[in-house]
Amino acid sequence: MHTRNYHTTDVLNIVPAGTAESLERISAGLSAILSLLEKESERSASTHEIHCLLAMVKSQLDLAASELCPADGLTGSGKTKSPHCRAGFSL
Fold first, then answer.
1. How far apart are CA 14 and CA 11, in angstroms?
2. Main-chain phi, psi angles of 74, to 5 degrees
3. Residues 30, 61: contact at Cβ < 8 Å?
4. Is residue 28 a contact partner of residue 4, using CB atoms and an 8 Å limit?
5. pLDDT tens profile 37-54
6. Is the pTM of this model over 0.85?
7. Would you state the pLDDT for residue 2?
8. What pLDDT does 48 receive?
9. CA 10 to CA 32: how far, in whole Å?
10. Is 73 left (phi over 0), alpha (psi -120 to 50) or beta?
C-alpha cells in the first residue's frame, strides 16, 4: 500500500473555499452553547459534565481548524476550558 505524505501547502490547496468561515461559525455556535451550559451547570451535575465534554469537542475543533487554516487565524474564543471542570474533563 502506497501512502503519500502531504506538505502543509498541499493540504491548504485542497481545503474548499469557505471552510474557515464555516468552522468559525460552528465554533461561535459552540461558544454560545457553552455559555448557556456554564450558567446551568451551577444547578446540575449532569449539565456540568455535558459542558465539560462539549468544551473538549470545541477545543479539538478549534485546534483542527487552526491547523487546517492557519492563515485565517481561526482559534476560537480561547475560552473552552471551564475552571470548574474536573481534572478528568480538563483540556
1. 5
2. -75, 110
3. yes
4. no
5. 999 988 999 999 999 999
6. no
7. 59
8. 93
9. 33
10. left
In terms of Cβ atoms closer than 10 Å to its own Cβ (0-12, 13-18, 19+), residue 72 is middle
CB 50 within 8 A of CB 82: no
Over residues 76-85, the pLDDT tens digits come to 444 444 444 4
Banded model confidence at residue 36, pLDDT cuts 50, 70, 90: very high
3-state secondary structure 17-83: CCHHHHHHHHHHHHHHHHHHHHHHCCCCHHHHHHHHHHHHHHHHHHHHHHHHCHHHCCCCCCCCCCC
Amino acid symbol at 13: N
